[in-house]
Write a structure and sequence with these properties.
mainly alpha; 27 helices; binds protoporphyrin IX containing FE; binds copper (II) ion
Amino acid sequence: MTDRAVVQGTLLALLAGGLLVLWLRSRRAVRAESDGGYTTREEIAFEVDRLQSQLYRWLTTTNHRDIGVLYIVFGTAAGLWGGTDAMMLRTELLTPPADIWTPETYNALFTTHGLTMLIFFVLPVFFGIGNYFVPLLIGADDMAFPRVNAIGFWLLPPALLLARMGLLVQVGGQVLSLFLPEDAIRFFLTVREVSVGWTLYAPLSVQQPNPQIDLLLLGLHLSGIATTVGAINFIVTIAYERADAVSWGDLDIFSWNMLVTSGLALFAFPLLGSALVMLLLDRNLGTAFFATGGGGPILWQHLFWFWGHPEVYILFLPATGLMSTVLPKFVGRKLFGYKFIVYSTLGLGVLSFGVWAHHMFTSGVDPRLKASFMAISIAIAVPSAIKVFNWLTTMWDGEIDTSAPFILCAGSIGTFIVGGVTGVFLAVVPIDILYHGTYYVVGHFHLIVVGIIPFMMMAAGYYWYPLMTGRWYDRRLAKFQSGLVIFGSTVTFMTLLVIGGLGLPRRQAIYPPEYQVANQIATVGAYVIGLSALLWLYNMVASYWRGDVVRTTDPWDLKATNQFTREWQWFEERMIEKYDLEPATPESTRRAYAPELEPIGMLGGVGSVVENVYRNAGRAAVGGFVGTVLMAGGLGTAVVVDVLDPASFGEIAELVGLGPDPLLGTLLFLVGGTVTWPLLFLAFSDYLPGQLMFETGLVFATLISTGFAVAFYTGQAGLALVGYLGFVLVAHWAYGLGLTVTFQYLRSRGPREGRR
Ligand code: HEM
Ligand SMILES: [Cu+2]
């Protein structure tokens, strides 16, 4: 314990000292303000008066932007603290035996790391970003309840102190033991950081005597109150403080996500609070909520995870909201599928309360119950996937600006996909039973908690930095840092997935030597993440007073793609007011793809698809005919060289219930080729932002060729199989090209269309 206390104490002291030095220097240099403007580089004298008034201001402010900044600073500090825990964890795992820290220290580390990150890092930072930007985005003056807002924030520092008192007390004990006898400072020697795991599973959490557990429970309870209060404020603000022009259908995606997150928090945190009180009572007053014979240890797991699973979504929904906000600005296109993203967010919110028992597949839960939780857990992948597809589609055919925010967005989508897919496996009971308690789980959830949450925080930070400070950060450093953090996370957490797949259990300080090399790779990756975090911090802090001044009202050239959103309009007004800047005018404007402008048919989306089909039927038939003729050549050759069995056309007819008649099958095939597929292609092409060009046709053809390959497969093996697949693919490409070339031709001859 000692070594760890000293290390963490020293690191924190160093950090605090460093910040103090930076701050003192900044006082003497130029000051930028968090209000969308900058001050000139005048010298500001070091006055006690001014200091006092500043202190007073920050302690008593009820301004949503100030409170936002406070939240962000607090959350960042907590994140660095929890990050230090993570670095220490990984350091211990450099060698197989527990020789760097003791096993007890190791246990404490993964406990405090998890809790600090989940409770004191993510939500405060997102509440901070929300506080700063939601009112600007919805055109409100401030949050609905500014004073409650301040209270909500100021509950957090004491909560963190209570939760992590163990370390402070230990360091205090170290210092005191130099002067005082052991008896006099007994309290300091009994309190130690909690080491029962962040899930606080009973019976261990009930039985361990460490008094710090009680302090932790109180701290968590307090943080729960803070979160609930903040959540209520967001809900009321978004529901009632919107400007007249902002209807629910115009509400931006980030605010939608903050709304759903707050709704989840409102249901989840009071429940956690009750469970924590029960645990406190069990520990101190001899109740039997979680004792065998009483409610039982499994009851704790139910209560904990009924909060714990939605909590995961509370953490990650705001990150997806930031992605949907930032990504479109850097690909020059409007967010694709606004409505579907909103629905999927709401869907995730509801479903997230229905899957908690997937964390308990290895506990003694009724197998029938497990099966139903498995089903819902798999289903929850759908709304997440919808978001991913919409992001990818937003990027499609965009004009990509590879600045730091974009790099982080693209990296996030990648890690999120791997993290999400590995999660689907864990949702399956037998697979979870194999992998539960291994590093596979750690790899899976870190690909999400690291691969999208901090990435999006950084991306949003870079994106809005000019607005918040009136200055630019070092953009080259930012690009480097973004690449670095993606690289580090991939190396670290992919390695954990692999060693977990090989069966290495998590939460153990000592491990078999054959895993050493892999563990060292993961640790080096973690150090890379740590380094990139420091580079980020340096860039943000140093640029605050040294960065280039922003001299335009549209730093990201958003007007050119019609994405000059409300918060930037606010910024523009301020810049004009304060610094007499001219409103920026873009050199050219491109028409960003705007699904909102598309005519909505009678039945919403469905109606417009029907209209499309009707409008396009003629064109589709011609294109489909040309494509099918070309394709027939390829398929005919395949029949001749004997890799495609003509009888398989009969199977097609059988598939739709017409009996195994090859002739009927061929007919069906022709109808599909000349009518159905071209119509589908045209219907989708209106929603697919790509140009109606060869690439689109090839992609479409490749996709449908997989269906064909499955449907027409008649047991070919070896070389015949390769030939079969090859011919199927080539024939479909011929089809796709025939289709698109015909469309191109018809379009170039037909009347000019306004559509694209
Ligand atoms: C800086 C990058 C990070 C690294 C290198 C890292 C590393 C680790 C390691 C080694 C463990 C222990 C695994 C075990 O023994 O079971 C762990 C656990 C955990 N981490 Fe991280 N982590 C990082 C960031 C984060 C973030 C950002 C969050 C939350 C948003 C987070 C949340 C957790 C949680 C909840 C646990 C589970 C503790 C447990 O159940 O044992 N981590 N992390
Ligand atoms: Cu879960």
